Structures are given as structure tokens and as C-alpha cells.
Amino acid sequence: MDETDDQQLARYERVADLALPRLSELASDLDTLVTEVFRPRIPYEHLNGADMMALTFVTKQREHLRSVQTLLATGAHRDALLIARTMFEGMVILLWAFRGKPERTDLWFWYGVILDWRQLRKKEEAGIPVDAQDWAKLKPYLDKHGPNYYRDKVRDRIREAERNGTTYELPADPWRNKWNTADVASMLTEVGSRDVYDPMYGHPSEWIHWGSRGIMRAMQPTDWGTAGFAEEDWRAVALALHTGCQSLLQSLEVLDGHFSLGLAQHLETLEETRLAIVAEVFTRDQP
């Protein structure tokens, strides 16, 4: 038998009541662990894409998880889920990139050279003086890594010129607008988590893209019209905090594996806790 809207809302609220205390404790444990991990300096190479990606993604995930907790505490449930979706996407990107390191992690890192070049060019076009040394610093990195980001049409023209024995003059900006050409769905398929795409990109997408259904669902009706948005969205609450915890946890697993920090047992215990919450609260309460 299908649930009525009231029954569904009651179930979401019940799940949130059961999950939040345990997820909040897990989030606190993860935050404490990050503090302990970063207390001693982790040796890294500042031009190593994998080093920088692992370190910065964990740092960003921690900040996002704190934001999720703050938003939930203030009742901004739907916005908390948006941050959680950002965390989820970051986790997927990190897992995908490390499946093909150093090529993929370097692609992520060195795309910054393209962005720096565009920023300098934008300044010059706006009449803002740019130090010649700034261009000089970029050039060797651009010469080395720039071809990895050529647009497909540029690559085709280069190959055509090589076949014809002619010279192809590159456009001023021959590079694509993304550091990689894979979308989140294909990344999820590769890392074996395609089944979680719809939960994270369905309900939250309605809110993030200003869709009519997402907004109207959030409105609180009254006899005279609307009283603004409903304060709670219990569908979003537990999902937001769980996704946040999972994203930071799996990012920490990448960091630990890359730098050999000796956290495997600790992280395994935290993962067992997360899975127990899923089994005892989320899965058991399905209609």
C-alpha cells in the first residue's frame, strides 16, 4: 500500500529523530579526528597534484560538515542538504581522481594554470597593468600542462595539420572550460556508487535549481495563502547529516591511503558505525 503524504512525513520525522543523535556523535568524532590528523604537519609536495587534492578536499569537507551541522541546528534543513550534496560531489570527484592518479589528480591540480592565465588576460583586457614576471612564471607550466586541456576541436585541427604537413595556429584561448570531461554520473558508475545518484540529485535538485515543485513543496499553506516556507523538511535532515559524515569519512580514507597515516583501523570503526546507523535506522524504516 502506498503511503499518504502525512504517513511519509511522519516516517521522515521518525527517521530523523532516531538518526540525528547518532549521526551528530559520528560527525563530532570525525571532526576530532581531523584535528588530530592535522596537528602534526603532514609532509607534502606543493606541486604534487595528489598530495594537494587529498589535503585540500579533506579540509574543505570538514568545513562543509560544520556548515551542515550549523544549518540543521538553525532549522535550515533544505539548505543543509545543498551543502551535503556539494560534499557528496566532492567525495565522488576525489574517489574518481584517485582511481587514476597521478594523471587525474594532476589534471585537477594543473588546471589552475589555465585559470591563472585567463585571470591575467582578463586584467590586461580591462586595462589593469600585469607584471611581466607573472606571465613568465606561468609560461613553463602552461607549455608543459596546457596541451592536456585543449578543446576537442583544437586537437582535431592539430592532428589534421600534422597529417597535411601544415602548421596550425592555436587560438588565443585553446583550452576547455573544465579540468576533466567526465560528469558526476559517469564518475559514480566508475567508483561503483551509481545507485546513490538519484537520492542526491533528485530531491535536492528541485531546491537548488529553483524548480516550481521544490519551492511549492516547501511552502506552508494557510487559509489566506502561504505563511512562507515550512520550518522543517524531515526528508532532508537525516540525509544531509549522513551524507556529510560519509563524504568526510571517505575523503579521510583517501588521505590515509595516500599518505600512509596509519588510520585504517580507526576509520574502519567509524565506517562500521555509519553502516550500523544505515541498517538500523534508514533501511529498517523503509515502507
Biggest beta sheet attributes? 2 strands, antiparallel
If strands are numbered along the chain, what order do they take across the biggest sheet?
Answer: 1-2
What distance lies between the first and last C-alpha atoms, to the nearest angstrom?
9 Å
> Could you spell the SSE succession in H and E letters?
HHHHHHHHHHEEHH
Q: What is the chains' assembly state?
A: single chain
The fraction of residues in strands falls at: under 5%
As residue ranges, the low-confidence spans are 222-227
Spatial shape = elongated
Number of strands: 2
Q: What's the pLDDT, averaged over the residues?
A: 86
Q: Briefly note the structural class of the backbone.
A: mainly alpha
**Helicity range:** over 70%
| Global Rg | 23 Å
Task: Describe this entry's structure for a reader.
This protein is mainly alpha-helical. The protein contains twelve helices and two strands, in the order H-H-H-H-H-H-H-H-H-H-E-E-H-H. The chain has a two-stranded antiparallel sheet. A hairpin with a 2-residue loop joins strand 1 and strand 2. Helix 2 runs antiparallel to helix 11, helix 3 crosses helix 7 and helix 3 packs parallel to helix 11 (234-259). The protein is elongated. The termini are close together.
